[in-house]
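The protein record filed here:
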Amino acid sequence: MNVQELLERYESGDMAFVGENLSGANLMGADLIGANLAQADLHDAVLVLAFLNRSNLTRSNLSGTKLSGANLSQSTLHNANLRDADLHGAILYGADLRGADIGLANLLDANLRDADLRNVNLSGANLRGACLRGANLREEKRTYKGANLRGADLRGADLRGANLTGADLSRSNLAGANLSEASLREADLSEANLSQAILKGAFLTDTNLSEANLSQANLQNCRLNRSNFSEADLSGADLSDVTLNDAKLHKTNLQGANLRRSRLNRADLSRANLRNANLTEAILIHAYLGRADFRDANLTEANLANAEISSALLGGAILTGATLPDGSVQD
């Protein structure tokens, strides 16, 4: 089918183009709202600034397709192939992308707000500055795997309230991204870059953040129970009012971090660097602090009842009003 025939049929009210071959077609700025292009071959086509709102692109081949600025809001792209596609600035608001392959695609500044991204492959994709607010990327056991965002560029992305439960974000770049109130339960963020990211109120229970960079990140009021921060960099991070019960913080860098009123019951902080950290009113009951470095840290009114601190470095630490492991209160 050629472009002229397609547009003429659409203008006459025919919107069924299932399985049509439109590879390499120039449809720049075309109005195809509501068209049924399921299983169509559109690879390497030009759909820049095209209107594809509410269109059906289920299982379509859009690999290498130019879709920059295209409007795909509320469209269905279930199991579509968008590998290496250019979606710079595209609008995918509320789109259904379940099972789609978007690996290595360019989604710079794209709008994916409220999009369904369950079981989507976004590995190596460029999502810098993209809006994923309220997007669904969660894992659903026996139904959907978590989204694959391994190595994706999400610098400065808006992920407020996004559901990333069980997602693979290992080695991804989330520097400066906004993940406030996002759900990252059981997600893999190992070796990810979250420097200066905003994670206020995020849910990160059972999350893998080993060797991740969270320097200067804002994690206020986060739920981090049982999460793994082994050898992660949290220097200068704001962890005030967080829950880190049973968390693994072995060899974690928390130098200069703000842990005011944080709850670290039974946490493993062995060999962690907490120099100059603020642990005022922190709760560390039964915490393991073997060889942890608390030099010059502020532990005013902290609760260290039954904590293991016999080999911790406490030179210059402020312990005024702190409850010590034996239950006594430091003068």
